[in-house]
Amino acid sequence: MSRVLVVDDEQHIAEGVRFNLQADGHDVVVAETGEQALDLLLRDRSPFDVVVLDVMLPGKDGFAVASELRTAGQYVPILMLTARGRPEDVLRGFESGADDYLPKPFELGILLARVGGLLRRRRWNEQDASTAADTNDTYTFAGRTLDFSAMEIRARGQAHRLTQMECELLRYLVSRPGQAISRRTLLEEVWGLHESTDTRAIDNFVVRLRKYLEDRPASPQYLLTIRGVGYKFQPESEKPS
Amino acid sequence: MTGRQKAIGFFITLCVLLVGAAILGWIYWIVITEKLTIVQLVVGILLFALIIAGLIVYTVFLVVEIKRNEEHDTFINSVTHELKTPLASIRLYLDTLKTRPVGDAQRQEFYDVMLADVERLRHTVDQVLKAGVAREKRRPVFRTPLEMGELARECVDLAVMRHHLQPGAIALEAHDGASLTVSGDAEELRTVITNLLDNAVKYSGSDVRVTVSLAAPSPDTIWVRVQDRGVGIPRKQLKRIFKRFYRVQARGIRQVKGTGLGLYIVRTIARAHGGRVFAQSEGEGRGATFTVELPRATS
Predict the structure, then answer these.
(1) Mean pLDDT along residues A65-80
(2) Shortest CA gap A155–chain B (Å)
């Protein structure tokens, strides 16, 4: 059984989502405001496996809640719901730390599948972590260690915690070294988004990953931009040394 | 700073620079021309004044247009939200009923939820349409004699029911004197009172204490006042709130949902009836009073 936190001030939607998640055997808590959600997650340290977060909330909005959680080191997977489906909004959602995104009105089946997906990934990661003793899921290059089971990057003497989707994106790129991969492919394969989401949403993730990995994030050596296509992971520095 | 604010700043700066350049050019022309007749001087001044006036008018129009665009964007945003949220809810409940076994009591509850959402959708569509009609100039008002006390009572009862309030949450203070009659369109005046009541409830949060009162400040005018003890309105915005698409902006005020059309509709209807509407507030957190002034019908 998983614990899900639903944050939505629209009672009808919150109750409808609660009913369905409970019918699927999840334990559901509803918070009506962003402040309430932050209290539950940060102050009370209530353990949740996934958060369904509406953007348009009274007081602190969903964007603010997501980024506050991430800044405070709370990496629970977040599925963002919003009535505003413009590319800028999707972009801002990912930028503020959401892992997945769904525009309203949504199909019930899709919502449940997305929540299920986030829960499944989280379980895999936990299993990985518990059996990680000998089958360590790590990747090392140029003095940097990517620890996928602990969801962190150790580089230049520092460890950085990754969110679920940062971790997934990095894993996808690293497992295909030297291959140029389009933004659309990344959105489809890593996020499972098939709608006409703005593909620039990826860029924010890459910017963050570069901050952890690169010596000079402005002129990257490992996570390269392929103009007009997307991104490429290059384990060996291409620049002549 | 948004892109629009930057654009406004850019055009105003450009205007100031061009005006400055025009004045400098004019002074330079006076200096280099040795023998300037009075006629030349006057014609020159007029010409330059014309150029400068043109620049300023052009900039003002540009800035107004940019601001109007911005208001329009907020309107689209809030209407999108007001349309999509109930739609999302209806879809969610229909999907649920279709895919899951739902008990009888629960099923009835779901139907009620969906009906409430349909009502919310209807209300939004209504407001948008009414605002459209209200904009038409020289629109005929179908006048009949109306007793405002009765009309207010109807609206209060309806609001209490629609917002699921305690019976005493909206108090109607009776007027002692003679009956207060207005010659007007019943449907439209009902919209006026209902919109004011909806706002009063909406901006009161969980503690709804609203008073509706009627008065005759002079023999030929009547007042309908709606007073709440809610979030209040910053002094500077008391006039602007009646503009189309305008929403109160203040740090203390939480994002309250709506289209930004309610008060605009109130003002247009009041004006079409030969009256006016104004707002008073002691400031943020101290409630607001809306007064509709209408001409009293002579009987």
Answers:
(1) 90
(2) 36
Single-letter residue type at A6: V
CA distance B233 to chain A (A): 17
Q: What is the distance between the terminal CA atoms of chain B, rounded to a whole angstrom?
A: 57
* pLDDT band for position B86 (cuts 50, 70, 90): very high
On chain B, the residues whose CB falls within 8 A of the CB of A109 are 95, 99
The residue of chain A with its CA nearest to that of B256 is: A58
In the structure encoding, which two tokens stand for residue A29, read together?
């808590």
The single-letter DSSP state of residue B99 is H
Cβ A84–B89 below 8 Å, yes or no? no
The shortest C-alpha distance from B192 to chain A (Å) reads: 26
Q: Which of A143-152, B96-105, B158-167 has the lowest mean pLDDT?
A: A143-152
The tokens describing A127, both together, are 């299993």
CA-closest candidate to residue B262, choices B184, B197, B206: B197
Inter-chain residue contact A15 with B85, CB threshold 8 Å? no
| A16 closest CB neighbour out of B77, B89, B257 | B89
* Beta carbons of B96 and A16 less than 8 Å apart: yes
CA A60 to chain centre: 20
- The pLDDT score that the predictor gives to residue B190 is 92
Q: Is A124 on the interface with B (CB under 8 A)?
A: no
> How many Cα atoms are found within 13 Å in the side-chain-facing hemisphere of A64?
12
Closest alpha carbon within chain A to B106 = A19
B223 in helix, strand or coil? strand
- Omega prior to A235 cis, within 30 of 0: no
What number of other Cβ atoms are within 10 A of residue A121's Cβ? 18
Average pLDDT, chain B: 86
When CB atoms are compared, the residue of B81, B91, B93 closest to A56 is B81
